[in-house]
Amino acid sequence: MKEFNWPVRVYYEDTDAGGVVFYANYLKFFERARTEMLRSVGFEQDNLLAEQNLIFVVRSVKVDYLKPARFNELLDVSAKVIEHKKTNFTFEQSIIRQQNVLCTAEIRIACLDAQSMKPKLIPSAILEHLN
């Protein structure tokens, strides 16, 4: 799959006392883009849990904060699978405001059995859509 993009508006609740986006909230923006990426190819995470006892969890995160985002700005959040193995994906993600890169991340997502919390094979149907 090509790079997926999702618009995010910065709300007051996303900012800190200095009026800039609180650093942890960038992770929420990245999460929304990955969720919407899955949704765009027909996979709802609640259905994956109910039907296949499958969940996705963050395994590791590497983030570089380059420039601040501020209240009421419209941002573009991207997500692209750059590597996949049998039980995990690695996403390359960025947050951009008018061609200015504000934040980049490499996020590894593991596929787990929801009950045992042990690694589970990523369904082939998902891999077909995200590669």
From TrEMBL:
Species of origin reads Methylomonas rosea
The text of the family note is: Belongs to the 4-hydroxybenzoyl-CoA thioesterase family.
UniProt xrefs under Gene3D superfamilies: Hotdog Thioesterase
Taxonomic superkingdom:
Bacteria
Q: Supply the CDD domains for this chain.
A: 4HBT (cd00586)
This protein's name: Tol-pal system-associated acyl-CoA thioesterase
Record keywords: Hydrolase included?
yes
Q: Which UniProt keywords apply?
A: Hydrolase
Q: Which gene encodes it?
A: ybgC
